[in-house]
Write a structure and sequence with these properties.
The protein is mainly beta and 71 residues long. It contains no helices and four strands.
Length: 71
């Protein structure tokens, strides 16, 4: 797997680092590992990751017609 290590810029955050593990062969997200300031490690293992192949630009635009009454 390929590991991407994320370290917060702000040391006031609860997390010391987050590691994202990606399968090299199929580029699927497999593991998210979070280490907090207390030394506690949280491990999220994704066993049934399904990638959406087609995401259109309108997926990221708020459509008022779909949510009447929301301004």
């Amino acid at each position: 797997y390929q590991c991407i290590e994320l370290i917060p810029k702000n040391n006031k955050d609860d997390f010391v680092k987050v590691e994202v593990h990606i399968n090299k062969a199929n580029k699927a997200l497999e593991v998210i590992k979070m280490l907090d300031k207390k030394g506690i490690t949280t491990l999220l293992v994704l066993t049934n990751y399904q990638q959406i192949n087609k995401i259109t630009d309108d997926s990221f635009v708020f459509n008022k017609a779909k949510f009447k009454g929301v301004t």
